[in-house]
User: Fold these one by one.
Assistant:
Number 1:
Amino acid sequence: MSVGEQAVAIARRWIGTPYLHQASVEGAGSDCLGLLRGIWREIHGQEPEPVPAYTPDWSEPAREERLWAAARRHLVVASEEAGSLPEWPGEVILFRLRAGGVAKHLGIAAEVGAGASFVHAYSGHGVIESPLSRPWARRIVARFQFCEGGI
């Protein structure tokens, strides 16, 4: 099984986990970063760096792309072209939720091509698999892949 297929299988196990800001515990609570952290731990072991406490509007006042910078440090860049759709299951998708805002939402591509979908933790919904519909696709700012065998 490829690392991408492994990431999708792990992400789908988390479906139904309630949304809980800053949490990263399968079945108990998670936000979008927590979901990614949980997948990382299962694939690679210990997380690559400590995650400081963060607020829901983190990095917005300073306009810092902290999540994007962290993704570049620990994942392989697949594309940093806005609106670029995932090509492989298991890609980490980074979204900008509103124009002019910082990129601060993550998901894992589950299906690609026709019927594309992604798994993410979304406030008010928990961890779910959503269609990668046009409203979501237009918010994509970058895509990344997990390294085989860790970093």
Number 2:
Amino acid sequence: MHSARDRIEYEPWLEELETVADRLELTTEARSCAADLFLTDVPDADRSKRAVLAASLYAGSLVAGDGRTQGAVADAADVSRLSIQSRWKELLESAGLEPPRW
């Protein structure tokens, strides 16, 4: 659970997360999980936030059983697929979840 202050501080990024989630037609559960993952590990540098946002959406969709491909999320978020590939497992681990081992 994240504080209201965190949600207020990162409101523009959470709005962007919702915009990208709309493009992907993600479920409410996937969006909620993605927002929690994003808030768990928001980077300091603004230039890294979009990549973490995309990785959070990808991982959140997996956790919620509403999985999308890394490519689809990357396209919707305007990042490279490699940006997602290099971050999503760490996001799950930092949230105390075990990434799949496929």
Number 3:
Amino acid sequence: MTTTGTGRATQEGRSAPAGLHALMDRYLDGDARAFAALHAALAPRLTAFLVHLVRDTAAAEDLVQATWLKAHLARARFHVQGASPDGAVQAWYFTIARNLAVDHLRAQVRDRRRREPGDDGGERDRLAEIPSDLPTVEDLEIGEAEAQEITSRVRDALAQLPAGQREIVELHKFQGLSMAEIAARLRIREGAVRVRAHRAYKALARWLTPTLRALLLLLARGGGA
């Protein structure tokens, strides 16, 4: 199945930055510098978009990172459709972000219902605010074989890390815990968690492909919120 970018402006009517499609082409060809440029152009917009949807800055920052990871895994399925190639690139990333926000808010609703039956705390209203005229999560589904191959490469790299670093990466990236939550679970200072995470991501960056290396380095520089 091929996923299409629609070219619609996805952040409150803002048009896409010029040159996104050229950067996307280079990135898809394995140019790590193009990925860094894409990140610089879209990360602030994605962050603002997600903060508006989930109303939690820390959660939005985690969702931005998850967006880049998911987009990287699905990158081979990006395809331009519409009059604006730059808009299609922006729509691609914002669609992934939107679907992750939906999953996040639904998880909050489920958790709140378990803790406080009959009180959704307004989460239904937030779900209603999320644009519904974008491709569905099924449209962004990546091939199982590709996902398994990438997961295998990442897990092989993880196995080379010291146990303390590996545990933090697994909690952060595979279980979705924040640095503060990891610190609480492991009963160590959050600063120590961030130091270990930074070292782990730098080590992983040496062992993975150039494009994924650039992605991991960017996440490490951001402190792995």
Number 4:
Amino acid sequence: MNELVNRYIDVWNEKDPAARRAQVEAIFAADGRYVDPLADVTGHNGIDAVIGAVQEQFPDFVFRLGPSVDAHHDVARFTWELGPKDGEAVVIGFDVAVLAADGRIQNVHGFLDKVPAQ
């Protein structure tokens, strides 16, 4: 599960659209769903579009995995940060990922703990 969560964070950092799409298809089920307070999408197209939109909004920022992944059975929870490569996080979140039978991610339920002021 740790490896899959690391790959999940990597896909959020992948700037090359073709490579990002390939990674989305590799780690998410075809009918996988990503939902957080700002997005609710299903399928590779939707997930890839959300990641691309976040990268456009924060072009020079990187995602970093929090201190640990807590997992059991087919569920994992973990924190992440988004901010400048060598700077303080601007966004902090908490995700819960549920796996499909084939070991790819079926659902991600995201929560935002810290967001920039509007």
